[in-house]
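Fold sample X.
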Amino acid sequence: MEAAAAALSETGCAPLLLSWGTRALYLGPSLRLSAHRNAVAVLALALDAPFELALDARRPQTGQRRCSAVLIEPNRLHQIRAGAGDCAFIYLDPFSSELKALRARCAEQHADACFALAGEDALRTALRHLPRSAAAWADETTHAQHLAPLQAALLGEAVQPALGDARVRQLVTRLHARPEDTRDLAGWAAALGVSESRLQHLVKQETGLPFRRLRLWMRLRAAVLAANGRAAGRADADLTRAALDAGLAGSAHLSAAFREMFGMSPTALLALSPVVVQIDPQSESTRTALPPLQCNPHAQAGR
């Protein structure tokens, strides 16, 4: 936390915690993160000084790679030792056009991570131009204008990707809209008209994650955004309410799962007093009146 505070004073800007659609962004001072596994792919980008990536996070001293950008695949254990100044972590929906575009633009691709990203400079420029004050995001009519350069830099010259399995897409959409939904995998399988084992296979195939970890990602994201960067002195009470509302067992569950997935505690993140911005294409009215789940047993038979 001392390193983060020092970096904050150097940049003079509050961290930005931005959620738009099913994506999320942290932009701010580098943090001392422990080894962890993100539930979705994450693009780590150094804005000022390169960072060290532990290729074997279980033994970080045995092999590190110095780089300024890396795309880390879902559920891969890793550790980043960031340098001075600002860095960005962009968390991407497994179905997003941006994720597929970024993979395609990496000249060096491995099972765990991709390197040598074309267009790094355009991304840094777009990130540096994102407003980092609550007042700048207060007018919703300017959100698209703020995000357009970042979206363009993420996509590059990408073509529209294939859609993937419609049932998994519906599942991801529902978990994003209502992470507190108590249905287990069997319940979702019944609603989608597919066997539990088949849905389990499809979710892992399409997203790279088991169902429970995908749901946990949605719940952690919702809980931290709901806490909304309130004062550190009230963080425990705020996190308890936010955790329960997101479908978690309480603040202890949230803190343990968040640390395992992001390499730090949610209290430590919120203690930085980030500017929290949530841009959701679904209004509250649509969240409470989602269309019924669609299944086509004839078209999907045997899948």
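Fold sample Y, listed below.
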Amino acid sequence: MKDLPHVIWLKAFDSAARHNSFTAAASELGLTPAAISQQIRHLEQHLDAQLFRRLPRGVSLTDVGQAYAQTIGKSFEDMALATNGLFGKKRTRILRVRASISCAALVIGPRLAAFKAAHPDILVQMTTSVWADRFDDEALDVDIRYGLGNWGEAQIAHLGHEYAVPVCRADYAQSFGENLTIQSLAAGDVVQIIGSETDWGKLSELHHLGLKVTTDWLKADSSLIALQTVSAGQGVTMVLESFARQYLDQGVLIAPVPYRLPKRRSHYLVVNDRAQLKEEVRLFCNWVQSLYQEMTFSEAEHPG
């Protein structure tokens, strides 16, 4: 086994191979082209192999030089990654988060830039699901789940009580004229969210409204689809106020009647047991909890 070549020779070779030029390598390393040529010559003598062809104008790698350049280049990259990873001041930390498509798109996503600004060294990888009640992917660190909170993980945090409200476009509400009531809305084009079909009936019972939802105009498997559908101009949907908030704040949709339905289920932060000690998990969970507290306060101040 040959002794390893001097690292200075390897550095000169790596730079010259990447640039395909002794002159460019000299500029990158702060040396003269003659010094680069000499170091590569020493390397070739040590290896007993020609790494570059010397041409009338410039140089080019030989076949063995090309193969060696790939290996040496990767070795320098690996050393740089290891050094930065272990000793760098701001090592990038990856945080893997899962939420429903509606929660991710309507609550977390629009506000995630604030978390990134506060923690630029944390790379958030967000994935989505329709329904999730366990960590079927062990790589996940945090789940934002909708339910009753009766799961098996050790660290589960309630994010606050949720309310559902009927929402629609203002022009759709105006199409009822003087006949706009919660009863007329329920008898109109209702976009039902799969899994929440009983909300209209529960709202009716709570407020003694006598609602009769005649037919479902459309069914959607997510609140996001339902909101996008009614924001296009047709129909009404009963949806979580936290999901509808940006549509209401931007004036895209309105809550045309003052009725709200307290939901039995709500959102929870669930931490994978293996990720409990990660600082990035703690920082993200604190941020999400603060976010939901602000949203709850806003909804209490400005319902509907």
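Sample Y note: The chain is about 45% helix and 20% strand.
Also: Residues 131 and 165 are 21 Å apart (CA to CA).
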